[in-house]
């Protein structure tokens, strides 16, 4: 099926040192890939650190300012676009989902970092000046390693990449929110995984609570404690996000989207969408499938 929103794989880009990673200065990358300024998806992890530039970007339909000192992280599947007012500069890294898998014993290692949560508000960070300097030096070391023609593996690059994640994590308060109660944090992560796997069919907190062997009240309490929202809201936000992602595919009729998301009928889907978004699905589609369309 032809999709209105392109999905790019890591193989769509020139390799840096290994087929699973691309590293570049952002100004050069931005000019070489003008098509990436409009809405698109990645099948890989993606991060950018801005040292210059101004404008806006959207991650899963949430707007953020572009400014020096800002770093953002994205996981596979998210929808993204840029709208720069001045020439941007900085660094970019794209890496495949399995790039670090042979290097780490824990396959879910990246999930320990809040900025790889898939929640846009946790993925966009403004770094302190001292940390900006450290991060820039790490990027420069990674770029330098890419010029090394010796036939060695990527272990040094992977180590530098992990150091970058840790340095950013240490500099932000968000990474400390979850450590005071590791049991409940593990439960929350499990709940989020279950939502990702079942949001098309399971809509009630009690259904997820049963899968987690806890009470609905406990599930609701931990969502409120960690995220400040109810369990039901977390489920609904995931359904709404998928609805938005599907709506910008012009090949799909609204009725088909309603069916894909397991709504009883198109009318119920339209009411649901309008209740929580404030506009109809067709209005959202019109506003978000024109150039620089925004809500």
UniProtKB/TrEMBL annotation:
Keywords: DNA-binding, Transcription, Transcription regulation. Pfam families: AraC_binding, HTH_18. It comes from the Bacteria. GO terms for molecular function: DNA-binding transcription factor activity; sequence-specific DNA binding. Residues 189-287 form the HTH araC/xylS-type domain. InterPro entries: AraC-bd, Homeodomain-like_sf, HTH-like, HTH_AraC, RmlC-like_jellyroll, Tscrpt_reg_AraC-type_HTH. The keyword Methyltransferase does not apply. This is Helix-turn-helix domain-containing protein.
């Amino acid at each position: 099926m032809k999709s209105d929103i392109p999905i790019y794989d890591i193989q769509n880009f020139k390799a840096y040192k290994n087929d699973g990673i691309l590293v570049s200065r952002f100004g050069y990358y931005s000019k070489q890939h003008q098509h990436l300024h409009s809405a698109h998806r990645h099948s890989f992890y993606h991060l950018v650190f801005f040292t210059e530039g101004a404008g806006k970007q959207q991650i899963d339909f949430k707007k953020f300012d572009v400014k020096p000192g800002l770093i953002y992280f994205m996981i596979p599947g998210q929808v993204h676009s840029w709208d720069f007012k001045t020439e941007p500069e900085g660094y970019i890294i794209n890496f495949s989902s399995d790039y670090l898998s042979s290097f780490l014993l824990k396959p879910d290692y990246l999930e320990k970092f809040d900025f790889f949560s898939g929640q846009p508000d946790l993925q966009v960070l403004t770094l302190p000046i001292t940390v900006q300097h450290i991060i820039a030096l790490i990027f420069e070391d990674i770029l330098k390693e890419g010029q090394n023609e010796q036939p060695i593996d990527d272990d040094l690059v992977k180590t530098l990449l992990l150091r970058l994640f840790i340095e950013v994590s240490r500099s932000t308060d968000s990474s400390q929110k979850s450590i005071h109660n590791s049991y409940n944090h593990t439960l929350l992560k499990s709940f989020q995984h279950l939502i990702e796997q079942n949001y098309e069919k399971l809509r009630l907190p009690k259904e997820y609570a049963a899968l987690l062997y806890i009470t609905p009240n406990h599930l609701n309490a931990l969502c409120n404690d960690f995220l400040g929202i109810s369990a039901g809201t977390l489920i609904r936000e995931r359904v709404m996000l998928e609805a938005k992602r599907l709506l910008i595919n012009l090949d799909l009729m609204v009725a088909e989207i309603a069916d894909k998301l397991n709504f009883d009928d198109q009318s119920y889907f339209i009411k649901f969408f309008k209740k929580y978004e404030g506009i109809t699905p067709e209005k959202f589609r019109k506003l978000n499938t024109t150039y620089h369309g925004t809500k």
